Amino acid sequence: MLKKTLLVLFLSFMGLAVYAQSPSAESVYNQYLDFNLARLQGEQDKVLELGENLLPNADKLPEKARINFYFAVGKMYEDNDQHSKALPYYEKVAIAVPDYYVVHRALGYLYLENIKELEGKLDTSSNHKTADGQLTIAYSNAVKKALPHLEKAQACDPSDETLEIIKTLYKKIKDEKGLNSLDSRLKELSKNCIDILSDR
Q1: What is the CA radius of gyration of the chain?
Q2: What SS3 string covers 34-98?
Q3: Mean pLDDT over residues 121-132, rounded?
Q4: Strand pairing partners for 194?
Q5: Quick one: pLDDT at residue 7?
Q6: Inter-residue contact 86 to 78 (CB < 8 Å)
Q7: What is the spatial distance between Cα 147 and Cα 143, in angstroms, rounded to a whole number?
Q8: Could you give the CA distance from residue 141 to residue 42 in angstroms, rounded to a whole number?
Q9: How far apart are CA 187 and CA 65, in angstroms?
Q10: Rounded to an integer, what distance in angstroms lies between the CA atom of residue 86 and that of residue 70?
Q11: Exposure b/e, 117-151, CB count within 10 A at least 16 = b
Q12: pLDDT in tens, 2-20
């Protein structure tokens, strides 16, 4: 009985200690403000440190601030050439705010890097049909992953360069149907466009 009581007390104290070490929502929001100030002032090293320190507690931020923070973290990693780290944060933003075309442009162009890498492998691959087949499938999948993001960006903020990339990708995967319906898709996608995320 005494052992059980001591165990319960010990576990209770441990729970309180963990709770006491956990930052409050207010202190997390203050860290978020510091992070944004460092971004505004162009203090790249400080931005990276503050952003990474805030990540484990980002769930304590209000929803809109958290989404804005995730976009900023994606941009932070992209600016530091850590593209694989940027992708999951940009993807979270795209899911949360699907009409925010800025994140779609970022995702589309980051996915485009993977496509270019696969193109290089296809160009230099040996004549082994199995290897070529797997690379072709990977290439096609990468293109299909990038296209919706590039199209949303193009629909909301037209660019001759982006449009040419989209058309070229459809041609490379031999998707005539997708290419022929592009204009109507872009028109539909252009109806709902968000260009700025709000914290409130």
Answers
A1: 23
A2: HHHHHHHCCCHHHHHHHHHHHHHHHHHCCHHHHHHHHHHHHHHHHHCCCHHHHHHHHHHHHHHCC
A3: 66
A4: 100
A5: 45
A6: yes
A7: 6
A8: 37
A9: 30
A10: 9
A11: ebeeeeeeeeeeeeeeeebeebbbebbeebbbbbb
A12: 555 544 444 444 443 434 4
How many other C-beta atoms lie within 10 A of the C-beta of residue 114?
Answer: 19
Q: How many residues does the chain have?
A: 200
Cβ neighbours of residue 81 closer than 8 Å, sequence gap 6 or more: none
Residue pointed to by tokens 């958290």: 66
Record the tokens describing residue 141, joined without a space. Answer: 């999948």
State the amino acid at position 41 in one-letter form.
Q
Rounded Cα–Cα distance for residues 168 and 174 (Å):
10
Q: State residue 199's pLDDT score.
A: 79
What distance in Å separates the CA atoms of residue 175 and residue 168, rounded to the nearest whole number? 10
Which residue is associated with the tokens 């485009």?
112
Q: Nearest-5° angle of CA 65, CA 67, CA 68?
A: 65
pLDDT in tens, 7-58: 444 444 444 343 445 789 999 999 999 999 999 999 988 999 999 999 999 9
CA dist., res. 49 & res. 72, Å (int) = 13
CA angle 162, 176, 87 (to 5 degrees): 40
How crowded is residue 88: how many other Cβ atoms within 10 Å of its Cβ?
A: 12
